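Narrative of activities, Objective 1.

The group set out to show that a structural description can be obtained from nothing but a protein's sequence at a throughput compatible with the screening campaign. Below is one input-output pair from the validation batch, recorded exactly as produced.
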Amino acid sequence: MNVMLSYRSTDAAFVARLADYLRTRGINPWIDTEGIRPGSRWRDALLEELRICDACVVVLSPQYLASEHCRMEIFVARSFGRRILPIMVEDCFQTLREHEETKGLEDIFMVRMFRLSMVGLPIKAEDALRRLGDVLLHPSEELQIQPSVYISYSTADGEFATELARSLAKRNIPTWIATLGVRIGENWRDAQVRAMMQASAHVVVLDEAMVRQPVLRTEILLAEARGLDVFTILPPRLTDQPQKIVDLIASLNNSDQTYRRLAEIQHFSCSEGVELACQNLSTTLTKYVQRP
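Output recorded for this entry:
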């Protein structure tokens, strides 16, 4: 695996740490300070590496995006069809669309090291690096999506939804959830569609602001189009909030048909504990699991 690290010199300390970690996984990354021989033309060396590398790990920051040379590297890598694995070390997400070279990167699932969170699931720095290393060592695994129960959730409930997915998996109910199913460098929209097209049922974690979340709506709409049975569950944070629950149901009823159908479903509740809710839900979902 020929991996190039593209970065701005202001992030050299992080890049050195990243390179050290990748070497522990058996990956020896190409870094300009080590890969460009003295006396050679550095731009030619960069372009050659971009032509032959298998993957380009891009360390994003405001300083990176402000650099014409850095943007050139990512543009060339994308033009040659190289796998792009973004790591954002300082928030610059809203700036990606301001540059022609980086438009579309916002649709690529990336590590956000500055806040250590993946679609609502808090993670540790070592876990983020491990997930990056896993993708580099096993680049084609994201294509191997098996039929499963698709779990939709809002960012505020990322931890609970992931706990739910893991609990159902322990009960032999295979699940797909973005926090665990989308891999770094993958187009997250494509990943969600592929998973939903393989789904056998749909579980929606209810959220009081869900009618204002377009991504969540597309998942619900696609499940409806496929004719999937849908089940809803209230997260623990809403269990003792009766007015919020009333407002939630009212917002669903006052929205379009895609959301109104959710209001008609009797939801599962965590009022007696998450484990019991998972057990009750898994019992209902058993008939949707394909047995060998």
